[in-house]
Amino acid sequence: MTTKTNSTSGIYNAPWEKSFDKLLTPFEEFIHRQTTSGLLLMGTAVLALILANSALSSGYLHILHTPISIGIGSWSVEMSLHHWINDGLMALFFFVVGLELKREILVGELATIRNAVLPISAAIGGMVVPALIYFAINPEGDAAIGWGIPMATDIAFAIGALALLASRVPKALITFLVALAIVDDLGAVVVIAAFYTDTIAVIPLTIAAALFSLLLAFNMFGIRKTAPYFIVAVFLWYALLLSGVHPTLAGILGAMSVPAIPKYDPQRFSEHVKKLIQRFDASYQPGKSIMTNDELSAVVHKLEYSVESVGVPLKRLEHVWHIPVAYLVIPIFALANAGIGLDFSSIVSTMLHPVTLGVMLGLILGKFIGIAGVSWLMLKLNLAELPKDTKFTQIAGVSLLAGIGFTMSIFVAQLGFGENEQLLLMAKTGILIASSLAGVAGFIWLYLVSTPKD
């Protein structure tokens, strides 16, 4: 049902339409979504812990291990619900990460050397130092494979915590953290592809390479409709699943192939639309519905196509997929992976376990030393400059927030210790404790070193 808000305006609104009319800039919208996603992520993580430590724990685990099969005829793919979430849904998460990364490289903080040097250097330091700390504590045995766990930063949680201080910190500091976290995620993807792949099946990997080449060919041919990319990306995901390379990388590869250049430049679009508007005005018949005016309908369809052609597919997909990934995919992942059984009688021995200790020190101490230390060195050598209106003490605070590893750290832990429940439990415990401490410490630090903006 629609209601006419003004008898002379010619504007019709659905009953709740006005509440959705507020427009946000892309960056403000991004921050808003990351903030609310972080809060939702926190809530689902707490819910998972409650489920895993209550009378519902057996039912919770039973649901996660329920086998789900998708098939046509004799062909089928069967995995547990837990694996569908980690291997399937998370491909959408990596797709959005890939879109953000591509945008940052083309037009964002990573587009120019001057702006990119500091976050890239800081991100590398924030990956290398935590890995070294973990490996120093766990240099051999089954635990050694977990060195990639403390390398990651959870962008939703970290930005959510920083956004709570939006009235005290400069916007450039949030932009710095976004760029740093995106580079960090790229590093995690490289680590997953290079070090967390057990065996490689050559034929499926060759097919995956051919499918990725086809996606790039779509881009070169100027195909801007998203359906062909989606269909090929699904086959790419399946080929990677069979190849032994983690299938979520299909999300990153798919994002890299999405066109980032519009069909029309703004001037050409303006000229084209003016001509269509002239045709629209000439075809308009007062009192006649557009549904019965074929010429008017045709012009409207051409206007719709023109508007789509002046837009960038990359930004359109990023806009479309941010909400389902932020509000569904990541919380579902947290619900499926954050549920660990806590034995408070042995919490001290758990925290002193080499894996738990390596993850905790890597995320808290390693991130702080790696990001703040490399940033200080780059600034001291005049190889980089601070973001606008920021202080180094604020960069140090961000380096603490970057210790919130959560989503990506748990993801890497699943890859490294998926077959070793004891070590996986220790790793997840370390991630939850470290992420909580890093978030609180970073928030307090930034609150103390920042003053309210005028």
Write a brief caption for the model:
The protein has helices at residues 26-52, 57-64, 81-107, 113-137, 155-163, 171-195, 202-220, 226-243, 249-257, 266-283, 294-310, 313-337, 347-351, 354-380, 392-401, 406-417, 421-449; strands at residues 3-4, 12-13, 67-72, 75-80.
Indicate the topology.
Blueprint: E1 3-4, E2 12-13, H1 26-52, H2 57-64, E3 67-72, E4 75-80, H3 81-107, H4 113-137, H5 155-163, H6 171-195, H7 202-220, H8 226-243, H9 249-257, H10 266-283, H11 294-310, H12 313-337, H13 347-351, H14 354-380, H15 392-401, H16 406-417, H17 421-449
Antiparallel strand pairs: 1-2, 3-4
Account of the 3D structure:
The chain is mostly helical and 454 residues long. It folds into 2 domains: 315 residues, Up-down Bundle (Na+/H+ antiporter like fold); 45 residues, no CATH class. The strands form 2 sheets. Strands 1-2 form a two-stranded antiparallel sheet. Helix 1 runs parallel beside helix 12 and helix 14 runs parallel beside helix 17. The longest helix has 29 residues. The radius of gyration is 25 Å and the shape is globular. The protein starts with a strand and ends in a 5-residue tail after the last helix.
Q: Total number of helical segments? A: 17
- Rg calculated over all Cα atoms: 25 Å
Helix content: 55-70%
Give me the CATH fold name of the largest domain.
Answer: Na+/H+ antiporter like fold
CATH class of the largest domain: Mainly Alpha
Count of extended strands: 4
Which class do the helix and strand fractions yield?
Answer: mainly alpha
- Name the overall outline: globular
Percent in strands: under 5%
**In order across it, which strands form the biggest sheet?**
1-2
Largest sheet: 2 strands, antiparallel
CATH homologous superfamily designation of the largest domain: Na+/H+ antiporter like domain
Give the SSE order as H and E letters: EEHHEEHHHHHHHHHHHHHHH
